[in-house]
User: Fold this.
Amino acid sequence: MAKGTFAKAMPHVSTPDLYYVYRPLLDLIGFTEGTDKGDGYNETLGYGAYTGGDVVLVKMSLKEIDDLQGKMLAHPKNKLNSSALGRYQIVRTTLRTIKRTLQLSNNLLFNEALQDRCACYLLGVRGIDKYLSGRLKEDTLINNLAQEWASLPTTKDVGYYGGQRAAVKSARVREVLAEVRKRHDQAQPKEIVAVEVDKPVVPPTVEKEVKKKFSLAGWIGSILSGGGIGALGLAGFGWRELLVMGGLAIVVLLGGLALRGWIVKAIKDIKAELEAS
Assistant:
């Protein structure tokens, strides 16, 4: 695993950084995997021990990378039986899964941007976005990441596989995750800004007319309804009064069509006032 300072391992990243939120964690992985002390995005397992020396991975296509990983696995001295390469030491089976899932063309270059994208995909698989949204506990995420990158520790400060030595303590991972969360939260909207409308949707004068016209219609309807007359009967009105009220109700029913026309006309008048205002 890598030794030295974490700050020294951080590569220059041009702006804007598409993976700015996740960059602290990507840099930590580059440090713990030992690639940033070597050739970074061009590093292979064993610092070129199974590739015949240094290679320029960022100028190779995914098809060429797959072929190279096959040669690494076939190397007689590769006792680890690993094809890990690139800044994030992605093995062939994992890279093939990423290519299939993201539908990546074999002609794509395995450059810095694509390696970052692949690593962020793996972060997503291990739950980074669930963690940032509060749906995954930090301890669970740390243990998940240790399964993906053997150089990262579990919450018990050892590697996930066989308790091997990890490159950093879990406290360091927590510090980095805190920075990732900070960047994520800064990118989220903090408040809702009220938008002042220069012109109301319904002018006050029109709204007033609507209330006046339709409150009057509602009052007449409630008084002349069957329920209203029944209530008057219970209140002690005689048969003559009820007869008058019933006749008036019949008049209202016969005038229903006229009333409907009045309502339609009122709506049209309101619409005209809206368009003119």
Residues 6-186 form a domain with the Lysozyme fold (CATH 1.10.530). Confidence is low (pLDDT under 50) at residues 1-10. Residues 204-224 form the longest helix (21 residues). The chain has two domains: 6-186, 204-276.
